[in-house]
């Protein structure tokens, strides 16, 4: 697996380690056109045969042109065991799978190390990490932290989950590079921690995060903005929102608040975004109370200053009342999402897979496998693929009156329906041809633009 070769400027191929395993593969090979990071040689004519030696590469590709999400979804459904390795510019990441579940993840990026994740989430300090690393190998950092009382066992589990989630998400964001699927048995004894995460759950979470981050970045462009509290909590916020709001003293950035509240940068950004929507906070490039740098002094003038002109309001550049976007209410949001649900349902029905599709969707909806929002409690999809609008609106109104929909009830409703939409699109993507799947995604994007809450 680690044998290396050198391609010289003239295109010659030579082993960098002396002996070469290619010696037993005599014959004529054709060089196939690929991206610059990998080389494919195919024997011509093919003689066939299967190597029994493990580990062995059984699939390789270009992640810049091949949908890695589709491969990962297949591996989960096929309950595959082995390693998925991704080599992208700047880093290399891998997932270890057992029966389609993610058992561990690794990366050569410093930011993906478990110690860095612990510091980033605020569970340990930088000084504590350096102290542990001074006399413990990196592979035992987590256990050493627990043994020394710096970290609780259940917090270590949370950090490990976050580490795998971030590595997985980093693989989903890769725009170029190569991936390899390596067939090998999983050595259970080699696993430092006994974890088993759902491949489908990680994939859906990553897809949702990509979509939501694009929305959040419209108001929170980066994590180094300072968060300034504008008003106190009014009892309508979620516990995580209350916690972050109380810490928003104008002297901490989004990232620092996330560390204080022991959540990732993504979750901190999500909470700040919701608080911005409710006008509880504002964000700034400078800390509250920071004095701006003084400008260069002007030379003294002997001219007599003219009398000040009377203060006047600045003219409206449009010469009229400023335009504001039309209101978007819960009925319109629900109507648009139901239209999307029916679109997905009809597309699947054309492929003759409707019965199984609806049964799976209803089972996931009833089991809270799609969304944990109470606004969807007890619901099932109607035969046309939609949700009963009367029931959803009734539950939404009741929960909103009880203060159970957070500081931005409409945004919470949209989020719950978005979770359902992503699940349906993911399930449909397994049944549809690529062209139909892409066309469906295009129509969905157009429909969502009509309720884009900026």
Question: What does this entry look like structurally?
Answer:
The chain folds into four domains: 1-49, no CATH class; 52-204, no CATH class; 217-284, no CATH class; 330-449, no CATH class. Helices cover 40% and strands 14% of the residues. The protein is built from 14 helices and 13 strands. It has a six-stranded antiparallel beta sheet. The protein has a three-stranded antiparallel beta sheet with strand order 12-11-13. The chain has a two-stranded antiparallel sheet with strand order 1-2. The chain is globular and about 75 Å long.
Helix content: 40-55%
Average of per-residue pLDDT values: 83
Shape: globular
Estimated radius of gyration? 28 Å
Distance between the termini: 50 Å
Strand content: 5-15%
- Please, how many helices? 14
What is the helix/strand order?
EEEEEHEEEHHHHEEHEHEHHEHHHHH
Largest sheet: 6 strands, antiparallel
Number of strands: 13
Uncertain spans: 308-326
Structural class: alpha+beta
Number of domains: 4
Strand numbers in spatial order across the main sheet: 5-9-6-7-8-10
What keywords describe this structure?
single chain, 454 residues, alpha+beta, 4 domains, 14 helices, 40% helix
Layout of helices and strands, plus pairs?
Blueprint: E1 5-7, E2 13-15, E3 29-32, E4 40-43, E5 56-62, H1 68-77, E6 82-88, E7 91-98, E8 101-107, H2 114-120, H3 126-133, H4 141-147, H5 153-172, E9 178-183, E10 197-198, H6 199-216, E11 226-229, H7 239-247, E12 249-253, H8 254-260, H9 265-277, E13 281-284, H10 330-349, H11 354-366, H12 389-401, H13 409-429, H14 434-449
Antiparallel strand pairs: 1-2, 3-4, 5-9, 6-7, 6-9, 7-8, 8-10, 11-12, 11-13
Helix pairs in contact: 5-6, 6-9, 7-9, 8-9, 10-11, 10-13, 10-14
């Amino acid at each position: 697996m680690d044998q290396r070769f050198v391609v010289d400027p003239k295109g010659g191929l030579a082993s960098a380690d002396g002996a070469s395993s290619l010696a037993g593969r005599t014959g004529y090979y054709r060089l196939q056109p690929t991206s610059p990071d990998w080389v494919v040689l195919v024997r011509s004519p093919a003689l066939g045969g299967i190597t029994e030696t493990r580990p062995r590469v059984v699939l390789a590709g270009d992640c810049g042109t091949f949908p890695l999400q589709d491969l990962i979804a297949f591996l989960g459904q096929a309950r595959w065991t082995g390693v998925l390795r991704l080599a992208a510019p700047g880093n290399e990441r891998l997932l270890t799978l057992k029966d389609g579940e993610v058992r561990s993840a690794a990366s050569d990026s410093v930011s993906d190390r478990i110690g860095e994740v612990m510091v980033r989430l605020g569970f340990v300090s930088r000084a504590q990490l350096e102290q542990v690393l001074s006399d413990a190998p990196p592979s035992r950092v987590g256990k050493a932290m627990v043994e020394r009382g710096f970290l609780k066992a259940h917090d270590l589990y949370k950090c490990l989950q976050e580490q795998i989630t971030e590595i997985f998400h980093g693989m989903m964001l890769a725009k170029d590079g190569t991936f390899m699927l390596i067939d090998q048995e999983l050595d259970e004894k080699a696993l430092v921690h006994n974890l088993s995460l759902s491949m489908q759950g990680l994939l859906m979470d990553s897809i949702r995060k990509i979509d939501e981050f694009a929305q959040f970045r419209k108001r929170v462009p980066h994590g180094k903005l300072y968060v300034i509290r504008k008003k106190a909590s009014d009892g309508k916020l979620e516990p995580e929102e209350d916690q972050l709001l109380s810490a928003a003293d104008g002297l901490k950035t989004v990232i620092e608040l996330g560390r204080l509240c022991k959540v990732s940068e993504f979750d901190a950004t999500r909470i700040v975004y919701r608080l911005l929507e409710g006008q509880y906070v504002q964000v700034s490039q400078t800390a509250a109370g920071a004095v701006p740098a003084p400008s260069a002094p002007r030379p003294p003038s002997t001219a007599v200053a003219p009398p000040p002109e009377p203060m006047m309001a600045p003219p409206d550049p449009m010469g009229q009342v400023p335009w504001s976007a039309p209101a978007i209410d819960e009925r319109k949001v629900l109507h648009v999402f139901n239209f999307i649900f029916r679109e997905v349902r009809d597309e699947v029905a054309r492929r003759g897979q409707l019965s199984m599709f609806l049964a799976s969707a209803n089972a996931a909806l009833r089991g809270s496998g799609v969304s944990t929002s109470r606004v969807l409690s007890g619901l099932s999809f109607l035969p046309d693929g939609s949700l009963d609008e009367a029931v959803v609106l009734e539950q939404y109104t009741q929960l909103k009156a009880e203060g159970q929909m957070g500081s931005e009830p409409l945004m919470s409703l949209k989020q719950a329906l978005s979770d359902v939409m992503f699940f349906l699109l993911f399930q449909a993507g397994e049944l549809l041809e690529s062209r139909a799947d892409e066309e469906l995604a295009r129509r969905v994007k157009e429909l969502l633009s009509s309720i884009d809450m900026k």
